[in-house]
Design a protein that fits this description.
Blueprint (H helix, E strand, L loop, with lengths): L1 E4 L14 E4 L1 H7 L4 E3 L6 E3 L8 H4 E3 L6 E3 L2 H9 L5 H13 L7
Antiparallel strand pairs: 1-2, 3-4, 5-6
The protein binds zinc ion.
Amino acid sequence: MEIDHIIPVAEGGSDEEENLWLACRACNNAKSTKTEGLDPLTGRSETLFNPRKQVWQEHFRWSASGVEIIGLTPSGRATVSALDLNNVISAMVRRNWVSAGWHPPKD
Ligand SMILES: [Zn+2]
């Protein structure tokens, strides 16, 4: 895991805890300096999900197979798309976690 700035330092984001979160390398690389992404349903630019200020379950759910993350809101859909949360590698890893009974999380 890597520490990511929710608002990038280059855009005035601070090193305070409320602006930091843990992200895997794939998500951190995909997010880069983005704070917005396109909602594929509407084509509009939306603010990316903020794990410090928003509740995951209100913006996302797991697919029935437990492999894919489904965005439920404009912010959720934009985040799934911008961070490529259902990329081939992540899906393969989740599929193995499902097989082992470790995924999706119960909470
Ligand atoms: Zn990730």
